[in-house]
Task: structure prediction
Amino acid sequence: MIIFKTIRWKNLLSTGNAFTEIKLNRSPSTLIVGENGGGKSTLLDALCFGLFGKPFRSINKPQLLNSINKKNLLVEIEFDIGGKDYKIVRGIKPNIFEIQSGGEVINQDAAARDYQKYLEESVLKLNYKSFTQIVILGSASFTPFMQLPPFTRREIIEDILDIQIFTTMNTVLRDKMNELKDSLHDADGKLQVLKQKATIQKEYVDTLEANKEKRVDEIISRIEDGELSITRFQGLVAALEGEKITHEDAKAALGDLATKQKKLESFKTKFSTQLRDLQKEVAFYNETDECPTCQQGIAHDHKETIVSSRQEKIEELSSGMDKLQEEFTKLEELIAENETLSEQISELSAEIITNNNEIIVQQRLIQALNLELNDITTKTADIDEEKTKLKSYAKEVLAQNEEKARLNEEKHYMEVVSTLLKDTGIKTKIIRQYLPVINKLVNKYLQAMDFFVQFNLDEKFDETIKSRHRDDFSYASFSEGEKQRIDLALLFTWRTIAKMKNSVATNLLILDEVFDSSLDNNGTDYVMTLLDTVGEDTNVFVISHKGDQLFDKFRSLIKFEKKNNYSEMVV
Result:
């Protein structure tokens, strides 16, 4: 419950630079009187300006500032909620807006609009419209409940029933749902990206593994080919070496042909020399009849004997030469054969070296291939790293799927809660529960004012009014006095409901010129009877011109007068 204690103001409208202060919780009933323009209704503007930043009456905010002083407008309101003290300070020139609790300023870093929202939603639990319907019934610049559009009527009742929080919650929920939709969109986009990454990574890993298997198969095939080549080359080398040995043996079997050749050439030279000497000697004896030394004649028989002897030797030597030539011919054939064997042996050796080199090449290739095969089969760091990435992507996809599922579940719950928070949801259910109570109270207060009609508000807050004779009426069809009785009945109903809820209940009730307008004497008595029922915890302020008629009906009196162009409180 809000217990208003004190209000003080200065430089507001016709009020001067000195503070006007009213104790709001001092007397159960207070009559405020004064001439027109005396400032008696300034309380309403001060109260609404202090709490909500705007006056009660149809006055522009700049017009609130005293036209003479033109600065230092200040309103201070002290109140208590649940044992906690609060003070509102609001001013113009300079602009001031403070919410104090326990002497400390609350949350002043917030923007002015947010600061006001905090005051209404977190402290007062009332906005301007609801406050004026519960606290104030005015004749000027006041729109009674029944003259408000249905939407505004609903807002006021929601405030009184303390269910406006559901509207706030629904607004917050809508914002969160919008944020959630964005989060879901982002989550889905991220999920698609992660799935694409995982797919690409899977294809990459599969490619790496396929390439690995393909390369292993290629290496094994090449190793097998190399081993076959080595076997083939080794066979060739073995055959060539066997052939080479055969040729070497054949060459060895020929012996030392050079020595034989030298011997034969020596024999040939010796035979040639002997044959030449013998042929010269035979020619000498055939051509010479005298001894060149002694000049004596050479006997024919002796000459024949010598020639015949020399001729026999010549024949022997010629026969030896022929045989020697045959040996030369044979030797030349052997030498030619030896050279052929040497060439063949060289060719075989070269071929053996070539094949051995091929064997070495194949062995080195096989060695290199085995090293590569071992590296591929035992060192799989690259593939393992990519598989680790794939697992990481898979985990991220799983986590993102879970996050999306969580967001979808949260969205589902929000949609359910949103359905409950709509006007057709839980608020309507609560209102339905209170409507019979509201209608009962309105009719109770109408009867207390001797106004016997059956008044009912429906869920859309449209009225149905029936007379005793079951005739249908509307609020607009009644006289001003009857309308005021309905307004009063609704005011007291709202206060009773607010007291039931406690959170928006208040000690303050202000009636502005209610007794000065359409109420007759009976109506005045009925209203006073109602005021007597509000209880000692309610502080009623009645602003009226009829001070002389109402003075004895109130426990305290406040009078405003205008002196030297300034309004002053004199009592």
Residues 157 and 208 are 72 Å apart (CA to CA).
